[in-house]
Specification:
The complex is a heterodimer of chains A (about 300) and B (about 325).
Chain A: E1 4-5, E2 17-18, H1 31-47, H2 54-81, H3 90-96, H4 98-118, H5 122-126, H6 132-164, H7 169-200, H8 204-231, H9 235-241, H10 246-257, H11 272-300
Antiparallel strand pairs in A: 1-2
Helix pairs in contact in A: 1-6, 2-4, 2-6, 3-7, 4-6, 4-7, 4-8, 6-7, 6-11, 7-8, 7-10, 7-11, 8-9, 10-11
Chain B: E1 6-14, E2 19-28, E3 32-36, H1 43-50, E4 58-63, E5 66-67, H2 72-78, E6 79-82, H3 94-104, H4 109-122, H5 138-150, E7 156-160, H6 168-183, E8 188-193, H7 196-202, E9 205-210, E10 213-219, H8 220-225, E11 228-234, H9 243-253, E12 258-260, E13 270-275, H10 278-291, E14 295-301, H11 305-308, H12 314-319
Parallel strand pairs in B: 3-8, 3-9, 6-7, 7-8
Antiparallel strand pairs in B: 1-2, 1-4, 4-5, 9-10, 11-13, 11-14, 12-13
Helix pairs in contact in B: 3-4, 4-5, 6-7, 9-10
The chains are: A mainly alpha (about 300), B alpha/beta (about 325).
Chain lengths: ~300, ~325
């Protein structure tokens, strides 16, 4: 507070003379792109509870630790046993820990958008130099980045550990890169779905429940149907059913193009041609989520 | 006034079912301007259009010389907005919230923090600014809402019903603060209210709209001072048992129109006449002295803005009725 000038008086410490004159602001105004970046960084920090109450740091930090812990253990085991490969592929890691990721999305997507709706802060944003698209992009990018941090950090732990264990550098780097592409796609997809669901309700509780439902019920239904199809020996159906839940979509994309082993029953993922459909559906969902968010916020306006 | 801050030219906004603004043309200069109208008169619609957030159906508007249809973002960088409804998250402190909003207006981080501290102090929030907003009184929340509208030092602020929900003391404090926004901070103000009375004390200029149409736009001095009305009251004497009537007749004889002060305290004993200038005062004094009556009082009456509209229809009268 540059205008509060403590003056030396006999009374000493408590006494201050406040210069209460108004000062106008002649400094720079950094405009729309800066405002969008500010909203992005505030939302990204908020996704880990930074700049918010201690209570809201607990869950995201806990989930982050839970995400990284298995990677740490695997690395320790690999180093100790001098194994010649990691117990789990980079691309499989997020699939195995999908419950943790879903929980994180369910908790943080409503935190990011439902609060602004509930407390009607959205009109204040739009009374500033930003447009609807800036708000949507900042929020989308922030949650996707938060998810990428959550999913890429354990891969980094695995990679560093693998190098310490002196595993083959080329092999590990390729796997790590494939893993990063996969979790980047997963982050975009999950963030989009989570935000679309959360942006419909100003109630945070409903938002959490709805996001969990969308992510886990679809997975439950799809894997059940896939198991039935597999028992009936129709492996073609297994692949097409996989298109209908977010996590099996990612699984399909990475087993077709990123050298991953498929988690589908029977262990056969989509072929390259089928994989193209997987990629298109994934990108379509990401674009669709963005479009729906734009539509939603065009309406909310002031 | 010279400069025009807001100018609209047959501005219309039609929704499928209602016409919110109907060929509104108005020029607003610097200073504090009141925008008065009943709920649903089109006040909030006008603000949305002026912020460049909602396209007009026809007509055009400029804010600070910028066209609202094409320069919305530039306008919003130079203008502040305080919404009518609650808009504050309860779990952050006023400081954190206002800093964030300053950055959303384009202020660099350091400037955002300095301006926040300054602005919160100017609106009268001190130590409590570090506590979560959830625990604030309505008056304090209104101050935070005002602070976020002023933090980027705009040239103009739109204040939508800033006195809503405040008790009489809080209302007076808020009106005083709004006055200072112009006099001390040099920021022009457009303040809406459905209460004409409270704007009379605060505004330099009042625009009245009803059903999306312009009812009247003039300065508050026009409203209240174009004609000075004198109220006079006299005693009765034995020569003139009805002194009031005697004065009225005498003034009539000199060509001065006099009305009964019906509806005023002491009705029947009070006469109202229009003072054309100094000579009217002399005339009244002379007439009363000639009649040998005692002058109980002679005072200037200031019109209330609401009286300006009193010959309107009942619904309108209700719409712009005197507040407080």
């Amino acid at each position: 507070m540059a205008t509060e000038q403590p003056t030396a008086t006999a009374a000493g410490d408590q006494t201050r003379i406040h210069n209460i004159g108004y000062r106008s602001y002649d400094g720079p105004r950094l405009g729309r792109a800066y405002a969008r970046r500010s909203l992005y960084s505030q939302s990204l920090r908020g996704a880990y509870g930074l700049g918010r109450s201690a209570k809201s740091k607990v869950l995201p930090m806990l989930l982050f630790v839970v995400m990284c812990l298995p990677a740490g253990i695997m690395v320790a085991v690999a180093v100790a046993t001098k194994a010649n490969e990691l117990p789990l592929d980079y691309t499989r890691y997020a699939i195995v820990l999908q419950a943790v990721i879903s929980l994180y999305v369910a908790a943080q997507a409503p935190q990011s958008v439902s609060r602004d709706l509930r407390f009607k802060t959205v009109p204040l944003y739009f009374s500033r130099p930003i447009e609807t698209s800036d708000y949507v992009r900042a929020k989308y990018a922030a949650l996707a980045s938060a998810l990428f941090i959550l999913t890429a950090a354990p891969l980094l732990v695995l990679y560093v550990g693998a190098l310490l264990a002196e595993l083959d550098f080329a092999d590990q780097t390729e796997g790590f890169a494939q893993g990063l592409v996969s979790v980047a796609l997963l982050s975009l997809l999950f963030a989009g779905l989570g935000l679309v669901v959360a942006s419909v309700t100003p109630r945070r509780g409903f938002g959490i429940a709805a996001v969990i439902a969308v992510l886990t019920i679809t997975y439950g239904a799809v894997s059940t149907l896939q198991a039935i199809a597999d028992v009936q020996d129709s492996s073609g159906a297994v692949v097409w059913i996989g298109l209908f839940s977010p996590i099996t979509l990612i699984d399909g994309v990475q087993s077709a193009f990123l050298g991953a082993t498929s988690a589908f029953p029977g262990g056969t993922g989509p072929s390259n041609a089928e994989g193209v459909v997987y990629v298109l559906v994934t990108l379509g969902l990401i674009a669709g989520a963005y479009g729906l968010l734009m539509r939603r916020y065009k309406k909310v306006g002031l | 006034m010279g400069v025009t801050v807001i100018a609209t030219e047959s501005l219309s906004k039609r929704f499928p079912r209602v016409t919110a603004l109907d060929r509104l043309s108005v020029d607003i200069g610097p200073g504090v301007t009141g925008l008065v109208g009943a709920n649903g008169a089109g006040k909030s619609t006008l603000i949305k259009i002026l912020l460049g957030l909602s396209p007009a159906t026809e007509g055009r508007a400029e804010v600070l010389g910028l066209d609202v249809a094409t320069k919305g973002a530039d306008i919003r960088e130079r203008v502040g907005y305080m919404p009518e409804h609650d808009c504050l998250p309860p779990d952050v402190s006023a400081t954190e919230f206002v800093v964030h909003m300053a950055r959303m207006s384009g202020l660099p981080p350091t400037a955002a923090r300095e301006r926040t501290a300054d602005t919160l102090r100017h609106v009268g929030l001190y130590e409590e600014r570090y506590r979560p907003i959830g625990g604030y009184s309505t008056g304090m929340k209104q101050r935070v809402k005002l602070a976020q509208a002023l933090v980027h030092d705009p040239q103009l602020v739109f204040l939508d019903e800033p006195t809503n929900g405040l008790d009489p003391v809080g209302r007076d404090e808020m009106l005083g603060l709004i006055r200072r926004v112009h006099t001390d901070f040099g920021i022009s103000v457009l303040v809406t209210s459905h209460l004409l009375g409270e704007l009379e004390r605060t505004c330099d200029h009042v625009v009245v709209i009803d059903g999306g149409k312009l009812l009247r736009s003039s300065s508050t001095t026009d409203f209240t001072q174009t004609t000075t009305t004198l109220a006079i009251e006299v005693t009765d004497t034995d020569d003139h048992p009805d002194g009031t009537r005697a004065v009225r007749d005498a003034l009539h004889a000199r060509g001065v129109t006099v009305e009964d002060g019906s509806g005023l305290p002491g009705a029947g004993h009070v006469l109202l006449l229009t003072a054309a200038g100094e000579e009217t005062y002399d005339l009244v004094r002379d007439v009363i002295a000639d009649l040998g009556l005692g002058l109980v009082r002679m005072e200037q009456r200031r019109h209330h803005i609401s009286e300006v509209f009193k010959d309107g229809d009942a619904a309108r009268k209700e719409a712009v009725g005197h507040g407080n």
